[in-house]
Write a structure and sequence with these properties.
There is one protein chain. This protein is of the alpha/beta class and about 575 residues long. It has three domains: about 90 residues, 2-Layer Sandwich (Translation Initiation Factor Eif1); about 220 residues, 3-Layer(aba) Sandwich (Rossmann fold), CATH 3.40.50.10810; about 230 residues, P-loop containing nucleotide triphosphate hydrolases (Rossmann fold, 3-Layer(aba) Sandwich). A seven-stranded parallel sheet has the order 9-10-6-11-12-5-13, sandwiched between helices. It has a six-stranded parallel sheet with strand order 14-19-18-15-17-16, sandwiched between helices. A hairpin with a 4-residue loop joins strand 7 and strand 8. The protein is elongated and about 100 Å long.
């Protein structure tokens, strides 16, 4: 059933002005009497047009419905009736489908260019985005926002697309795109066939001529340098991962993101935590997705908050309901979809690392690898091989530690309670510094028995949401069952060690269907991570069943050491060629 505000205006005795499509700005422009211009600007703060006699409305399906309602009261002479009729019909179809999705969510499978399978609730999210192409996907952490966004790109073929992501997630997006998306790799013209990149990562603040690509990735800190370039490229879709990075207006990155989003038809924000502190932050986020969809700042604070300039929302539930009804936001929590989730989910997340730091730290191991073949003594050769692998393992641990910390911050800000596992003390020092604001407690093997007990007590009783534990200290620790996430900042050679670490969060005697534990394995593409990942059976986005839920026996240790030796030899061989980065 068509809502009353979408009833079509067939005839009118009097016109208050004219309506004309403006191609340069992709807007509908009203020129008319003061009464309609004043009414338009008072009711729709999102409409622009300086001075008198002019009001400009962005051409979107949602806004065109509002424009139709305005014309019911103030009829306008439409200068391009066929174009308006097409826009009107799209607006009607959009509203009807939006109502259907709100009342009875249904599922549309992604196109054949999507490789893989979506869970049922992920298909619903994919369907929601297809019908609401400017929206915020606000699912809780671990429900697959990335893969739903990739499915959206596959189904809409919205290329070129721009992905705006935090620095530490660039490599993971590259991995996920390569895994789930089949992209066109060539462009054929009348004169020549040119290779084009599938994915191009934009580097540096200084703009350069971008190669042709299907998907471009840039991180938030670089946006200010590309502010005047990106809007001119003509992106068909923009995905803003962790869009809460834009919760504060007045910054260069906010201005740049706003400008490029305003030129694009498909704008998808991703965030499990779009609000960190005050509810008013949602205005900043939604203003990127659809300009002034919540009115201008003064209007928003006057009506939704406690008065002009206040950023405390009076009725958050009402605001959330409005965003969902309007198709501006979709949010599912783990509790909503538990039937589709296993009790424990293991997720491999590719994470960035400091290539300069790694290159410097690895030089000693590289030198040893180059001279190892000249050593005849078998025991000395074995000792040096272990030294090489240990140094490499520590180098990659240190190099990725700041990025691990950023990932953990993201989880903590989402309200998760975390056990963070690592191995090297140099890595713990980085965590202490980077995560200080969250008051972490540590169980790394250096603490006294009393200090260890105090750390467990503090986490168990909610004095902190972050407990940092050594991989080799996981066995025998009780009282950490309140965690909702396990994060491995470093990896161990033994599958059972990881299993013991995961066991720290198991709810003994509690119905497993009432929660689903997330276990994140944060891996880099260099150093020992890649080799340990192969040894453990870690695959992108899942952890294949080599691990058993058991303690490490002597037989486990022997088998692990035997297999680990084979993989360590691969590391030594790789390092013989040296490691350099630009």
């Amino acid at each position: 059933m068509i809502p009353a505000y979408l009833n079509k205006i067939e005839t009118a005795d009097y016109f208050y002005g004219s309506l004309e499509y403006e191609q340069d700005t992709d807007s509908w422009v009203i020129e008319g009497e003061p009464c309609i211009i004043d009414m338009a600007k008072r009711i729709f703060p999102g409409c622009s047009g300086k001075g008198s006699g002019l009001a400009r409305f962005q051409n979107t399906k949602r806004i065109n419905g509002d424009l139709n309602w305005l014309m019911q009261r103030y009829p306008l002479q439409i200068k391009q009736p066929e174009l308006w009729n097409s826009s009107y019909e799209q607006a009607v179809e959009h509203v009807i489908k939006r109502q259907e999705l709100n009342e009875r969510p249904y599922r549309v499978r992604p196109s054949m260019d999507f490789i893989g399978e979506l869970k049922g609730f992920q298909e619903e999210g994919h369907t929601f985005m297809l019908h609401n192409s400017r929206t915020l996907l606000a699912d809780e952490m671990g429900l697959g926002k990335t893969v739903q966004a990739i499915a959206f790109l596959a189904s809409t073929q919205s290329y070129p697309a721009l992905l705006i992501v935090p620095p530490h997630l660039i490599r993971n997006w590259q991995k996920e795109i390569n895994k789930f998306l089949k992209l066109p790799r060539k462009v054929v013209s009348l004169f020549e066939e040119n290779e084009k990149e599938s994915v191009h990562v934009i580097k540096g603040l200084r703009p350069y001529k971008l190669p042709e690509a299907s998907i471009y990735i840039i991180h938030y800190l670089l946006l200010r340098g590309w502010k005047n370039v990106l809007p001119e490229i003509g992106f068909k879709a923009i995905i803003l991962d962790e869009i809460q990075e834009l919760r504060h207006t007045g910054t260069e990155k906010y201005s740049a993101a706003s400008l490029v989003a305003s030129r694009c038809e498909n704008v998808i924000g991703l965030s499990g935590t779009p609000i960190y502190n005050r509810g008013g932050e949602i205005w900043s986020v939604m203003n990127i997705i659809e300009y002034h969809c919540l009115g201008d700042w003064d209007s928003f604070t006057r009506e939704w908050c406690f008065g002009y300039g206040s950023d405390v929302v009076k009725n958050p539930d009402l605001l959330g309901d409005y965003l969902r009804r309007e198709g501006l936001m979709l949010r599912r929590r783990k509790a909503d979809v538990l039937k589709e989730l296993p009790p424990k989910r293991r997720v491999v997340q590719t994470i960035d690392f400091d290539t300069g730091t790694y290159s410097n730290l690895i030089q000693s191991a590289v030198s040893k690898a180059k001279m190892i073949d000249s050593i005849n003594d078998r025991f000395e050769k074995g000792r040096m091989s272990r030294d090489i692998v240990n140094e490499t393992r520590q180098a990659i641990g240190i190099a990725k530690a700041p990025y691990v910390a950023e990932f953990v911050k993201m989880l903590l800000n989402a309200g998760e309670r975390i056990l963070l596992f690592a191995y090297h003390h140099a890595v713990w020092e980085t965590f202490k510094e980077e995560l200080e604001e969250f008051h972490p407690v540590f169980i790394t093997g250096k603490e006294t028995l009393n200090q260890k007990d105090e750390s467990v007590w503090a986490f168990k009783n909610g004095e902190t949401n972050l407990c940092c534990v050594s991989l080799r200290a996981a066995a025998g620790i009780d009282g950490l069952q309140g965690a909702s996430c396990v994060v491995f900042g470093e990896l161990d050679w033994s599958p059972a060690i990881h299993s013991q670490a995961e066991d720290r969060v198991q709810r003994i005697g509690v119905d497993e269907n009432k929660d689903s534990i997330l276990c994140y394995y944060l891996v880099a593409e260099e150093g020992t991570d890649e080799t340990i990942q192969e040894f453990l059976g870690l695959k992108v986005s899942q952890f294949v069943g080599i691990m058993g839920d058991k303690t490490e026996t002597e037989e486990d240790k022997m088998l692990a050491q035997q297999k680990a030796t084979e993989h360590m030899n691969k590391i030594v061989e790789k390092l013989k060629g040296g490691v350099t980065y630009q």
